[in-house]
Amino acid sequence: MDTHSFASLAHVRILLLPVGLIPQSLFESYASEIRTYTSLKLAEIPADTRDGKAARFLPNPMSTGYLHLSFPTHPPAQSQGPLSLLRPSIFPLAVVGIAACSQGDNLRSLHHQFNSNLEDIFPAGSTFPLVRNCFAFEETEGTVNLDTGESLPGLTIVPCIAKRKLHLGTLLGVLCSQILVEFGTLTQALESPVGNEYLNASLMPLPPPLSELPSPLNRGDSIPNISSHNSQPEVTRSSFTLGAAPTLKRMSTAPSTAPSRSNTLNVTVPSKKRLSTYGTSSSHGRLYKMLGDFFLLSGRSEDALICRAETRYNEAALVFRSANDPLWYASTCEGMATCSIIEAWSAGHGLNNSTTAVKEPWHDVSDRLTQAINLYQRTAAPESEPTHALFVFLYCSCVLRQSSLLFAVWSAKGWGPLAFTTMLQPGPRPFLPPTLTAGDRTNYLLLERLSTLTGISRSSIASCLGQLHGPWLLHLGQRERIAVLEVTASIYACIGYQRKEAYILREVLGCLLDLMVCGREEDGYTQTPNIPQSAGLGIHNVHPVAGVNWGTVGVRLSESTAGNESILKLLAYICRVLGIDLEAIGLSEATEARVVEHPPSLNKYDEDIVDELREPLGWPELQVGVVREAVAVAEALPDFPTVAQFALSSLKTLQTVLTPNDQYHLYATASRALLTSRRRGDPRAIEYWSGRPIVSISVAPLPTIRIPIEKPRSIRHKVLDPAPILQGIVDPFLYNPRRASDKGTSLVVQNEMLEFVITLQNPYIFDLELQEVSLSTSGVPFDSQPMRVVIPASTLHQVVISGKATETGVLTIRGCFVQAPGGIPREYILPLYTTEEEERLARKRRVILSESCRFKYPPLERHPWTQADKHKSIPNAEAAIGSAFKFLECKVVPEQPLLRIRRSSVTHGALMLYDGEKSIIRITLENVSSIPVDFLHLASEDSTIGPSQKALQEGNLSVFETYETEFNLIHRPVLTWDKDESKSIAPNQNLTLTLGCFGKVGCTNGVIHISYAYSQDPRLGDSGSFYLRQVSYPLMVTVYQMLECSAMDLLPFPAYPQVRRSADTESVNPKDERLRHLDISDDGWCLFSIEVRNSYGTPFDITLFRTQNGKEEASSTTTIPPGLVIPIRKIVLSDEAVSKIIPTLSEKQFVVATSNLTKVEEKAQRELFWYREELFKCVSARWHETGGTRSGELSFRAQRLTLPMLETFRLEIAQVSLSLEREDNEEEEREISYTGAKQYLKPNEFVQLRAKVMNLCSFPVVFTLDLEATPSEHLIYEGIFSELAIGRLQSGESKEISTTLCFLACGRFELSAKARGFGSSETEGRVARTHISAIVTED
């Protein structure tokens, strides 16, 4: 393809053609050797000629110029033939065939094939090429006989020698010498009056025929003899050509002869026009312009444009200014601009001593090209000539030449040798100066710096190129249009105008598709009318036609894929510029292998999060239209895997802007393409495309009877630990490392079915089909089968995959393998959402959101793939996180035994009890596995545990309520079990267990949990743990509350006097007999009473029991409704005992005390608690159904102990007794009659009041005594009654004091005494009291 180099007017084009069966790689190798000669020194070109006129273009031996060469590999279009005189530089002036030979026998066939190829390429009558030669390269040294023994004109053997490159230079010099000779021959024809007349006959003239030329031009001695068979045109041609080319002299063989020039011209029918009238009115401007072109091509720029003399171009310009010939004038201006660059290049290489003094010399060149562009625009094409395409071609070439000038100066950082080299580069590909690499075109700062240095802005280059694009491009042929658009897009790309580049490349793509369609039609791909076409597969003769037998074979035409890859790459690049990633879905060789990355890729894991938060770029309407074009182009090629790739990539990246119809269309197109690709056996397949389909993966809960529980072996000795009952209590610590370490992996059993619940998502509006979904695991082998899934549109869908772990160890679930129909399996990992992972994802979201709101990069550099390329070299601190991912893990334990409940003694699982009743139930277990059971433990729960645990968790209970709640949970369970019944159960054997049941009010249901294990499993080895399983038995419980306790009270025991007997009688007081029968003294006792109400319809007998240390047990039985009363002995607790804090049975740790009580109140609270506990240890009650067999316990735990009750129940610190005696000397007279606590006295009689104090404490105490008598105004006494000092009394010691009283009136007097202790905190506030009654009468 023509690169439209700036100096193309000065390039001698030598067409390189492959000859024979030469491989393309070998042809490119030989062609690259030839292309190393981009220029030849004029001094190296032979100047051997015998005709001075023909040798006018040959250089002098001392010439210092250069001949610039170009080596295209494609001939020009035949439609450009009319430009052969106006623009000879676009035609190949010589043709060099490249062949590979290994023996001398095939040289003749190569020579014949070379001539045949030239006849096919160049039409008859073509002026060019001027010289033709075939280079036969020797593959190995000595394989070809250089002396063939016969003359093969136009064939040169290039030997395989060490200095073959130098030899090629010599051959090219000879070839160029022959071209320059032909320039002279052509010039002679044009300098004649007839030639000049033909030169000015039309806008785009053709060379004149032979019959119109004067006879002197046909003399045989006018030009060198050229003996070339293939250079002589056929005599029978209807027109002649000046393009017959001489053969090249063979440097290593015999020299060729030089035939006369007459052999190079064809004889045609003479014209009737008189020759004497030719050239009389024709201008010489075009001839001067032709001479300038030839001198420019021959490297004689000093002859084409001489600053100190008249030049051919200047002469032509002078003529064209006066004549109305804008087309040739424009071409002349282009030649003058090219001469300026050649001269500047020569000066830069030291060829000339003078340099231009103009500061910006490229302005003059640009002005000439601007003038040429304006002249082309003013040229009007005659309607009678189909020259529109040629006009457009010349105009576009001129615009590209000016744009190339500006770009070369801009990219080379100014006017200089580098800019000249860029403009003169004749290679098959555009030359990019080293100052502007391929990666710099997106560097905004660098591009603007070039504009600042050169004074040429990128917008000025783009404005110049903008003149090129317009509707006139449609006049160009496909090849010329592609070449023009290709160069335009290249310049746009180099100056950083990528969107304009993409716009131009879309037109290039359209031209290429048109050429492909035309090429397929020319190759016979289109069906002929008499051959029926099948539907869809391009198979012929599938359906028989009339007259055709059924034996006809169906043939499907082979589709050529040459060039498809380049078109698809171009299409992908255009879409990337517009913000569409058509390669977002990978396309690779189809494989069923499942690749697991170790460690997993962090970028792949985060791609969905990044895509979700990324800011949309580009114009949605344009993107959707381009996507439709891209899919249509891929279908037209056809490339079915790429069709699916483009369609699915668009679905993934443009989902938010695609309409439902577009989504359906793209998905349906991709599905059809994948089916067709699979049917045709295409080895390529696409990766999974729908983003991350997995939302979550979880282990399906196992049946409760199959769940293994890991326990330490020490648990076998802690089966009575109450902690499981209180496990619902909230840990008061914010962080408890013990509990934090309890969270482990899930436990599963070897060779038992395991199910995983996978949640999949489909964000599209169509049902998404997945060919396979399977688990990605590591660790122990996991045996499972993939499944096919169809996810409904725009919804979440759950699937269950089951399998078995075949070995013990750790099973790690990394994620899932997902495969779409016709695609490649892809692994999607799903790590656990830990705190660290949550923080990392939140940090990444913040970074993406912050970058989306900032404009750090130009719009085209904000695409995801651009950002990814920029950050490739930046070390990613999070790259190591992939190896630290935590995945869902399951610990596979050895096979475990399995029990089931065979039967039970409970009818229909329902149990009915009275409150406090105790009963038993029996359960039979059966071992249905092949593994024995050697460990068995029972635990239970009921409906009362949950509310109690919740109340404890809330922490709003008082210390008394907390203790009672925990007491009921631990010491009064509904279900109990005797651990001595734990026995081993052999495989396929039964065992019956007996459980105790206790009726608790509020219990409605309960569950019996039976834990079992094979603790001595040899597969566990020395492990410190074993694995349990549980089987549960639920119960429906009904508890009737028939007895209600209330009004508990403690009363002082009545003080009865000791039994006294008269000396002369044996009579005993009946009350004393009753006291002796109760064995209760009158001191240190109190009465316990409680009211019990029967709310049930059946009578019950209640027995109240008293159990105290050192005293005989006693009981009191009655039938409700009467209340219960029983005497109990008072007790006293040590100060150490009552100062203990109120315990919590759960051993819960309290960080901060929340009580607001004072010390006195707290002390009183503790005394109440501990004395209550002692009271309930002394007193208990049981009930029995009257006339029945059911019995149970009656609980007093709901009753409260008050302060008066505490004072009554607590033993006094001392025993105080009062007595009255007369003061008579005789003992008989001193006795006073009494009845119980009442004593009978007479008034106005002195009596002794005796008070006795006995220390009941275990330590010495100092006592004082306070006496009181009421009414005090009717008696007199001796001394004082208050704070009588008793003194210090040892434990058990007593002391008696007395005082004299006299009652002054008759009546009832109450005498009391209070003893107080001092010297110990235990006695502070405690008082011992007693009283007696005195009845004063006259009788």
Q: Can you summarize this structure?
A:
By secondary structure, this protein is α+β, with helices and mostly antiparallel strands. It has 30 helices and 46 strands. Among the domains are: 1-280 and 289-296, no CATH class; 694-731 and 740-850 and 880-891, no CATH class; 899-978 and 993-1040, Immunoglobulin-like (Sandwich), CATH 2.60.40; 1043-1208, no CATH class; 1212-1336, Immunoglobulin-like (Sandwich), CATH 2.60.40.
Query: Which structural category do the helix and sheet elements fall into?
Result: alpha+beta
- Give the beta-strand count: 46
Largest sheet: 6 strands, mixed
What is the overall number of helices? 30
Global mean pLDDT? 77
Helix content: 25-40%
- Order of strands, main sheet, comes to 2-3-1-4-5-6
Topology:
Elements: E1 11-18, H1 24-35, E2 39-41, E3 66-70, E4 94-101, H2 107-121, E5 131-138, E6 155-158, H3 164-191, H4 193-199, H5 285-297, H6 301-304, H7 312-322, H8 326-348, H9 362-378, H10 388-411, H11 417-424, H12 444-454, H13 458-466, H14 478-494, H15 498-522, E7 539-540, E8 555-556, H16 564-577, E9 587-589, H17 602-613, H18 620-636, H19 640-653, H20 660-679, E10 684-686, E11 694-699, E12 709-712, H21 737-740, E13 746-749, E14 754-762, E15 768-779, E16 782-784, E17 787-791, E18 795-805, E19 809-819, E20 826-829, H22 835-852, H23 864-870, E21 888-893, E22 899-904, E23 910-914, E24 918-927, E25 935-942, H24 945-954, H25 959-971, E26 975-977, E27 990-998, E28 1005-1013, E29 1025-1040, E30 1043-1052, H26 1070-1078, E31 1085-1094, E32 1100-1106, E33 1114-1119, E34 1124-1129, H27 1135-1138, H28 1159-1178, E35 1179-1185, E36 1191-1194, H29 1203-1209, E37 1214-1222, H30 1227-1230, E38 1234-1235, E39 1238-1241, E40 1246-1255, E41 1261-1270, E42 1275-1277, E43 1284-1289, E44 1294-1303, E45 1307-1318, E46 1327-1336
Parallel strand pairs: 1-3, 1-4, 4-5, 5-6, 13-21, 23-29, 39-46
Antiparallel strand pairs: 2-3, 7-8, 9-10, 11-14, 12-29, 14-18, 15-17, 15-19, 16-18, 19-20, 19-21, 22-24, 24-27, 25-28, 26-27, 28-29, 30-31, 31-34, 32-33, 32-35, 35-36, 37-40, 38-39, 40-44, 41-43, 41-45, 42-44, 45-46
Helix pairs in contact: 3-5, 5-7, 5-8, 7-8, 8-9, 8-11, 9-10, 10-11, 10-13, 10-14, 14-15, 15-16, 16-18, 17-22, 18-19, 19-20
